[in-house]
Amino acid sequence: MAALRDPKTGCPWDVEQDFRSIRHFTIEEAYEVADAIERNDFDDLCTELGDLLLQPVFHAQMATEEKLFDIGDVIYAITDKLIRRHPHIFDKDNQLSAEQVLDQWENIKASERDNKAKKGLKSNEQELNELKPPQQELNEPRLPSLLVDVPKTLPALARAEKLSKRVAKIGFDWPNIDGILNKIREELDEVETEIKAQNQQKTHDEIGDLLFAIVSLARKSKVSPEAALSDANAKFTRRFQHVEKRCTEENIALADAGIEQLQKFWEEIRKSDKE
Length: 275
Hints:
Blueprint: H1 12-16, H2 19-38, H3 42-65, H4 71-84, H5 87-90, H6 98-131, H7 156-168, H8 177-196, H9 200-220, H10 225-249, H11 259-274
């Protein structure tokens, strides 16, 4: 990577890149790793993991050039974090169940977030003190938000799950499944109301609320919403491909089949799945 980034002898494309210009590649490579796993293609998984591995190396090389950090710092940081978050492994006196391990992990992460946020607040407070007019008193800095480090770049479904899970940890949650189901029904009624009123913006907002409530239902049911939707996508694709196949067998153009005929073929595969 250092050779590719060399200003004189390196690759012109690689030399031109910066942190922002390649950040989306990191996300894309992670999705391609997930896709290889979904397809059980382990030869491809090996290749895709290599592509993904390139991303931290690329970022670390650019950071090295700017004297920010290097790849050794990256590896040291994750090693230190793994040891810190697994005292039940590296402290042999601390034996925990799987459920206790998860609770401990979240507690350690919460403590790390607090320390990280407090450092940020201290820096912000120093900047404000430099900018404030003489004799002007500033309010005490607000406590760091519980949600401050939930990445905004996550896919919306995954971010909703993280937000929901984070606040549930401090008790901001429905006491049982019935509460969430009632909330979903309420949100669905509100969606219907706004659709009938032809209010596009409010329909947008209410559908968002409905989706967030469904994510909470998945979390409460110990189901990954991302995985569940991914599986639903795969099932829909497989079933629709059956519809396409049946249209071909019946010598019917897909666009001319009509909803009743398409629905008939759809029910064939749906019934077969249930059996």
